[in-house]
Amino acid sequence: MINMVFSVFFGFWTLLLPLLVESTPGSQELFPTDCSDVFVNGHTLSGVYTIYPTGETPVQVYCDMGCWESLTEDGNWTVFQRRMDGSVNFYRPWEHYKKGFGNKYGEYWLGLENLYQLTRKRKYELKVDLQDFDGVSVYARYSSFSVESEAEGYKLHVSGFINGGAGNSMATNNGQKFSTFDKEQDTHTQLNCAKSYLGAFWYSQCHNTNPNGIYLWGRDDSRYAIGNVWQHWKGYHYGLKYISMKIRPVPVAQ
């Protein structure tokens, strides 16, 4: 009797298993590359999730899934940089910016290598959310964003600016390599931009935005361009309350 029940049970699962496998989207479900995959897997609330930019190594990241009413319109973002309260020191060496640091529930940098691994596989867009200490929010959006390998200095490619009130403070960053105080790759002939402006970014000569500069807590006329500033919105003397840089895949044309 027991053998008969086992045979029936085993036969049932033998028939059912192919149907289950066929209904599964595949390895993407087990190893999401970014937050858009996390969303497809059914996780629609913003929060910290695990992604696999290289396909193997797990990485924690904050996923901005947007408002419930418009998840597909302004959600599915993989946040790679966020400042919100000055709790994390962003004046760090190259290895830290390469690997990532901070608190995924608060302020953090995802890591240049993770950005490279993400953007080499898919086409991404970028959105930068900004907020001042009066509660006013604006954004800058770019229809194309990618980062080259470490061998190429994690060179940035960003274009297709769409103005959400912030202005285009990243225009001069396009085509630039990433710089930290201990690895200067900017194009200034006299200054080390990272050292001079106490940050790390894709500096040129030197910057119109310094999102990884020191947290200034608003306007400070005694400090020029060393804060987490966005020049085209608040100028060089105003440290923003909130900055978030995030990416998501560009929909593939049908």
Strand segment tally: 11
- How would a crystallographer describe the biggest sheet? 9 strands, antiparallel
Helix/strand class: alpha+beta
pLDDT < 50 stretches: 2-27
Specify Rg, calculated over alpha carbons: 22 Å
Estimated share of beta-strand residues: 15-25%
SSE pattern, N- to C-terminal? HHHEEHEHEEHEEEHEHEE
Number of helices: 8
Q: For the terminal residues, how far apart are their CA atoms?
A: 56 Å
Measured as a percent range, the helix fraction is: 10-25%
Overall mean pLDDT:
89
Shape: globular
Q: Briefly, what is this?
A:
The chain is an alpha+beta fold.
Which keywords apply here?
254 residues, disordered N terminus, 8 helices, 9-stranded antiparallel sheet, 24% strand, two-stranded antiparallel sheet, alpha+beta
